[in-house]
Design goal:
mainly alpha, elongated
């Protein structure tokens, strides 16, 4: 039946949960088949009646059983209603019996509570009055406030106010009347406690500071009081900084009337000197004020970190600061540095007068700052207590005046550079500065160093600027150096180009020597700063005459090479011992010419007017070093080629000895004191007697120690037969070619060339079947083996 209704398109609508009869009727009427629908519905009703009748008949027994159960439940429910009614009656009777006692108990409870509150209030009032009386007695017993036990009075005051606030004693006439007096006493205690505390900070008295802090700790106002003190001192410091750089205040203090400062912060005409003096005085006062502030706060912090409450043993510093809070000195210093840096930056850009004053007087400004930092460090250097300032904190203060430092260094470089540019103008290459010009540059450098020498850090910074100026000087001087044939000629008198180079060399020598002496008394690091510039100046000074010295040396070597054009092997040759060899005469003339035309203009004058014209060597100058090198080279070059002379007869030895004497005299009188030449001079002095020794005496002679082995070996070739060729002969080299080869080789390489010549000789002797060698052969092998042994 249910399936039939569900499948029917009309009856299925009645099974929907949202069935609407009105909507169904409206749809049936609008469809135009209402009669058929009615018939259909009536048929359905008949079917439903039949189905219901069938269901009732099939379940008749069950329905009768359910009906009897309902009747039993109705009977039980009636019995329950009766019991509930009886219970409600009992409850009404109990409620009426308990309500009166409850009202009485509640009233008594309120009465008891009021009695307790009143008792407690009376007790608190009595205690309040007792404490007030103790405070009054304490105040009356010591009319002199300086002898008053402030900490005890503060403790009474704190307990009275705490009692008043905790038990809400306001509104009690006697309490209110007494409270007014207590409040007045509290103000007096604060005032007196602050007086003691500030006096202790001013006098740096730990006892007074501790007593003052104890007053405010007992009053429960320690943190606020300390914060207030820090803020107060911070404000004093900031005010002092602002006042010291206030140009209007400086103008008023300078004593030249109102309106003395223009908008740009520049004093009126005529007031600059007074304004500068007033500005420096204010800065000095500001530094003193900052010192006092920082030391006072450090002293406050020191006492806080040491003092404990005598009853609770609480450290006072823990009451003032939390774990992450900065120390008091850090707070005050950061505020002061921030204000100082801001004010310095502002005045640097806003006041041309302050900028000029502090830039030109930066060493004085820096000295003030460093003196402040040193005083603070000294006055807060107590064992077991952290200092007021760390190195980082000090650097912060120095950094605050960095704009003036930069301007000061730029001004320093500008002064030096302008002076160098005026002495060596780029527009005029041929102009040569005078000694006065060079002295002005050196004096300016000396003034710059002396102005900052009391401060090591600033001295190094200024030296860096001086280094730049010296590099500019060397660059301009190098631009003025003349080159070309005129600067290198050595046969005629000194040319204008050479005279200009001489002047440049001497000027640069003067700068190098004077500046080196200026920094000699400074720390080593100062010399390191100027080392690049001084080295460059030294090099440029040498470059200005190096080509001339090389040309002179080439000329002298060319004269010495002519020794090979002379005959030293002919017996009975010219025995006129009063004259030197032609090559030696030419060498002497060249040396004298060089001395008179060139060296006399370059070398410092002799310290003794009665002595010869030999240059004084008490101080090693650039030119002295070059002359020393030329003199050493001449002696070494002569000995080398004298040892190559072959053959060498007895009369030739005499002639060569005379030439060596003439050479020693010429070099000593015109170039350099030969006794100060060291090895080359000892070699010259040793070679003269060596040439007269017998071959058998040579090996044991101590003279060989002063001669290079190659000189001795080459000289032995002059004692050997023609069959034993020297390396120069063996390789068919000219004396100049062989000398150039020797310049590029060491003693061991020269020995290898000599050994090859000895091996050829031994081969020739062996080819002839001879068993004996010339006397010099084994000696040369022995001397050569010592060279190999030393090299290994």
């Amino acid at each position: 039946m249910a399936n039939l209704l569900a499948s029917d398109p009309i009856f299925s609508a009645f099974l929907l949960p949202d069935f609407d009869s009105a909507r169904f009727s409206s749809a049936a009427l609008s469809s135009g088949s209402a009669a058929s629908r009615i018939e259909k519905l009536q048929e359905g009703l008949r079917l439903l009646d039949n189905q219901l009748r069938h269901e009732v008949l099939s379940r008749h027994e069950d329905l009768l059983n359910q009906l009897s159960s309902i009747r039993a439940a109705d009977s039980a429910l009636s019995s329950l209603r009766s019991s509930v009614s009886s219970l409600q009656s009992s409850l009404q009777r109990v409620r009426s019996e308990l309500s009166d006692p409850h009202r009485v108990i509640a009233a008594k409870t309120v009465q008891l509570s009021n009695l307790h509150s009143t008792t407690e209030l009376l007790q608190s009032t009595i205690r309040f009055l007792r404490l007030s009386k103790k405070l009054r007695d304490l105040m009356d017993s010591t009319p002199d406030h300086e002898k008053l036990d402030l900490s005890k009075a503060a403790q009474f005051h704190f307990e009275i106010l705490s009692l008043h606030n905790e038990y809400h004693l306001s509104g009690i006439d006697v309490v209110d009347a007494e409270l007014k007096w207590v409040t007045e006493i509290g103000q007096k205690l604060r005032s007196e406690g602050m007086r003691v505390l500030e006096k202790g900070l001013e006098d740096l008295n730990q006892a007074d500071v501790g007593a003052g802090l104890q007053v405010f700790y007992n009053m429960g106002e320690l943190r606020g009081t300390v914060d207030g003190l820090v803020s107060k001192y911070k404000g004093l410091g900031v005010k002092s900084i602002n006042t010291s750089l206030d140009m209007k205040a400086v103008s008023a203090g300078g004593g030249y009337g109102p309106g003395g400062v223009q908008r740009s912060g520049t004093p009126q005409l005529g007031g600059s000197a007074k304004a500068k003096e007033a500005l420096w005085q204010r800065m000095s006062s500001c530094m003193d004020q900052l010192h006092s502030i920082v030391v006072a706060i450090w002293h406050l912090q020191r006492v806080l970190s040491k003092k404990r409450d005598p009853f609770t043993h609480v450290l006072l510093l823990e009451e003032v600061m939390q774990d992450d809070d900065p120390m008091l000195t850090v707070r005050i210093w950061e505020a002061l540095v921030k204000s100082f840096a801001s004010q310095m930056k502002s005045t640097f850009t806003a006041s041309s007068f302050v900028k000029e004053t502090f830039t030109t007087g930066y060493p004085k400004l820096l000295s003030m700052i460093e003196n402040l930092l040193e005083r603070i460090s000294r006055d807060t250097d107590v064992k077991g207590v952290p200092p007021a300032l760390t190195s980082e904190a000090k650097d912060q203060m120095i950094s605050a005046i960095e704009p003036f430092q930069t301007a000061f260094l730029a001004l320093c470089l500008s002064r030096l550079s302008d002076l160098v540019n005026s002495v060596f103008p780029m527009s005029s290459r041929g102009s040569i500065p005078s000694k006065e010009h060079i002295s002005r540059i050196i004096s300016r450098i000396q003034e710059e160093i002396e102005s900052v020498q009391l401060d090591a850090r600033l001295t190094l910074l200024v030296l860096h600027e001086i280094n730049k100026a010296l590099l500019l000087l060397s660059e301009r001087a190098e631009y003025q150096i003349s080159a070309g044939p005129e600067a290198r000629q050595v046969t005629g008198p000194a040319t204008p180009a050479q005279l200009k180079n001489f002047a440049l060399c001497q000027h640069l020598q003067e700068v190098h020597a004077r500046v080196s002496s200026l920094v000699a008394g400074l720390p080593t690091i100062a010399s390191d700063v100027l080392s690049p510039a001084l080295g460059t100046i030294y090099g440029v000074a040498g470059d200005s005459v190096t080509s001339l010295f090389q040309a002179m040396l080439d000329r002298l070597e060319a004269s010495i090479l002519k020794i090979h054009d002379q005959s030293f092997g002919t017996s009975g040759m010219d025995n006129n011992n009063n004259h030197a060899s032609p090559y030696m005469e030419e060498l002497q003339k060249s040396i004298v010419h060089f001395r008179s035309e060139f060296l006399s203009r370059l070398l410092p004058p002799s310290s003794s007017s009665s002595s010869s014209s030999t240059p004084s060597c008490s101080t090693e100058t650039i030119c002295t070093r070059l002359v020393r090198g030329v003199a050493s080279r001449v002696l070494t070059f002569f000995i080398r080629h004298a040892s190559l002379v072959r053959p060498l007869s007895e009369s030739g030895k005499l002639r060569m000895a005379r030439d060596m004497a003439e050479l020693e005299l010429a070099v000593g009188q015109n170039l350099f004191p030969v006794e100060q030449l060291g090895g080359p001079y000892r070699s010259l002095r040793a070679f003269r007697p060596v040439i007269f020794l017998e071959t058998s005496q040579l090996e044991a002679s101590p003279l060989l120690q002063d001669l290079p082995p190659s000189v001795v070996l080459h000289h032995l070739f002059s004692r050997a037969p023609d069959e034993l060729q020297s390396p120069m002969q063996r390789n068919r080299l000219s004396p100049l070619q062989y000398s150039l080869w020797m310049d590029s080789q060491g003693e061991d390489q020269i020995w290898r060339g000599i050994k090859a010549a000895l091996d050829d000789y031994a081969a020739k002797v062996g080819a002839r079947g001879d068993k004996e060698f010339c006397p010099v052969y084994p000696l040369m092998l022995k001397l050569g083996s010592s060279i190999s042994g030393n090299q290994s």
